[in-house]
Amino acid sequence: MSGAVGREPVFPTRQSLGLMKSKLKGAEIGHSLLKRKSEALTKRFREITRRIDEAKQKMGRVMQIAAFSLAEVSYAVGGDIGYQIQESAKQARFRVRAKQENVSGVFLPQFESYTEEGVNDFGLTGLGKGGQQIQRCRETYARAVETLVELASLQTAFLILDEVIKVVNRRVNAIEHVIIPRTENTIKYINSELDELDREEFYRLKKVSGKKQRDVAQADAEILAARQKAAEKEAENDAPATAAPSTEETEAPDVLGEQEDTDVIF
Amino acid sequence: MEGLFFNVNAGYVEGIVRGYRNSLLTGQNYSNLTQCETIDDVKLQLGPAYGDFLAALPPNPSTSALAGKMTDKLVAEFRYLTAQSTGSTAKFLEYLTYGYMIDNIALLITGTLHERDTRELLERCHPLGWFETLPVLCVATNIEELYNSVLIETPLAAYFKSSLSHQDLDELNIEIVRNTLFKNYLEDFYNFINTHPDFSGPTQDVMSEILQFEADRRSINITLNSFGTELSKPERRKLYPEFGKLYPEGSLMLSRAEDVEGVALAVSANADYKSFFDAVGLNQGGGLGGMGGGPADGKSLEDLFYQKEMEMSKLVFTRQFTPAVVYAWMKLKEQEIRNVTWISECIAQNQKERIGNFISVF
């Protein structure tokens, strides 16, 4: 998993580590917020689904009654009145108003139906016969259209919510499965790089101090050796006093040379 | 005596109509129809009566297509009768078509008023109300031209001339125009029946009764349907035919009626109508004309009127030597088409509980 996710191309520095840490924190907060939003929307979505189911069943019943009342009209009038109705209707009696509802930041359109009471365009249709059936048929159909409007607003909300929920879930998943692991990976990488650097540094220091110790030990040994030689020479000089000054003179620049060398090394 | 020479001119037509009458669906047929599960079954059941006309229908036709084909048969038979009739019988048959012509012309007026292409409307016209010069009316582009061509070209000129001007066509609601025309037509028909020497005797008897009933029915319906609309009382009164059993006192009371009770009071002088109103019940309020929210037996005022009309039409066949049988047969046939449409509609929409709501007389 972590191999597939990869990491961000950053230099493993302490600064970017800080950046990454704050990013991870942000991502976690965003994730929990989005998750909550998605849950709220899903709740709403389920409710709407349930209401759509109810509305659809209601629509089935109402449309059946409406179609039947049309059959009654054609029985009573004994002919087709469609054309006449179409021509005499001039103004809409049944109207629809659109509103907006805000559900966790998503704007859902809502349609609201109302009837314009004053409008009665074909009130006289079927005056000779069947007029009452026609009026009742109109009422039935008005109810049917009301159900349809309700259903329409639910369906629109359904589609929009569906889309939004998909987007939100995609974001949640992206944060959960890509951004957070990737940031974590980066942090891990930076940490490991920094550790590596630390270790290198430590090793180097160790090496240097080891070398130092070795040098010190050598120097000590040489000093010791020199002292021993000197002591031996002294002892020699004590015995053959004449030879001693010459060796002392040859020995002395050599020691100095040695000391100069060590000085250079240090 | 009046029957002595009847058969010379109209005997064949009457015979044919009596034959047609026998092909009307009976109660047995209807109970078979109500048992059907699909429209195809209905079609099959109608086979013996309608034969060729339904053959062209596709499987599971729509109810309107079915009704259309049935109407085609009615039209074909009626055309045959018109072709066979002469003299006063031919005139009588022509009168029968005037009612459909009024509907057709009202359709064309509506089309012209809304500046539609009236040629498209021709196919929507009822074939029985078709006359040769009907397409000429489509030439008219504005309402005044239409008015003039109606006056010149149609047999309905008299009905227009006496009560409507071309401004009226523009201003009045088309339904008022239609009902005015229909009122004039009914009055003219009534007059024709009662004054024509050939029709004294049985024709006059039965047709007067039927037309009076028709006039009363229209008056009552117009009154009931005008409640709650902008139709004023004086205007309403103008639409009542000026004859009938309710005329004049009943009509006057109807014109003053403000609610269903007023109508019931106006018609209470006549035993038949009173019994209708009693049967339907006064307390239904606006639901009087309907079958929807009606009482348990499902009969509405409109149904009762249809029922009465059918009974009267049935009785006409007990009389001989009269072209009134043609009228009766047409009404019965139309009711039959409505019945079948209703039944197939019930079957198509799966609303079997109300399937028995038709009127069968035989």
TrEMBL record, chain A:
What keywords were assigned to this record? Hydrogen ion transport, Ion transport, Membrane, Transport, Vacuole
Tell me yes or no: is Transit peptide among this UniProt entry's keywords.
no
Has UniProt tagged this entry with the keyword Transport? yes
Q: Which InterPro entries match?
A: V_ATPase_D (IPR002699)
Q: Acidic residues composition bias: which ranges?
A: 248-266
Q: Which family does it belong to?
A: Belongs to the V-ATPase D subunit family.
> Which PANTHER family does the UniProt entry name for this protein?
V-TYPE ATP SYNTHASE SUBUNIT D
Q: Name one Pfam family in it.
A: ATP-synt_D
Supply the source organism's classification: Eukaryota, Fungi, Dikarya, Ascomycota, Pezizomycotina
The name under which this protein is listed is: V-type proton ATPase subunit D
Q: Which GO biological process annotations does it have?
A: vacuolar acidification
Q: Which GO terms describe its molecular function?
A: proton-transporting ATPase activity, rotational mechanism
TrEMBL record, chain B:
What function does this protein fulfil? Subunit of the V0 complex of vacuolar(H+)-ATPase (V-ATPase), a multisubunit enzyme composed of a peripheral complex (V1) that hydrolyzes ATP and a membrane integral complex (V0) that translocates protons. V-ATPase is responsible for acidifying and maintaining the pH of intracellular compartments. This subunit is a non-integral membrane component of the membrane pore domain and is required for proper assembly of the V0 sector. Might be involved in the regulated assembly of V1 subunits onto the membrane sector or alternatively may prevent the passage of protons through V0 pores.
Protein name (Swiss-Prot/TrEMBL)? V-type proton ATPase subunit
The source's superkingdom equals Eukaryota
- Keyword annotations from UniProtKB, A to Z: Hydrogen ion transport, Ion transport, Transport
One example GO MF annotation:
proton-transporting ATPase activity, rotational mechanism
Q: From which source organism is this entry? A: Penicillium cinerascens
The organism that produces this protein has a lineage beginning with: Eukaryota, Fungi, Dikarya, Ascomycota, Pezizomycotina
GO cellular component annotations, sorted alphabetically? Answer: proton-transporting V-type ATPase, V0 domain
As for family, the record states: Belongs to the V-ATPase V0D/AC39 subunit family.
On subunit structure and binding partners, the annotation says: V-ATPase is a heteromultimeric enzyme made up of two complexes: the ATP-hydrolytic V1 complex and the proton translocation V0 complex. V-ATPase is a heteromultimeric enzyme composed of a peripheral catalytic V1 complex (components A to H) attached to an integral membrane V0 proton pore complex (components: a, c, c', c'', d, e, f and VOA1).
- Read off the InterPro entries from this record: ATPase_csu/dsu_sf, ATPase_V0-cplx_csu/dsu, ATPase_V0-cplx_dsu, V-type_ATPase_csu/dsu, V-type_ATPase_csu/dsu_dom_3
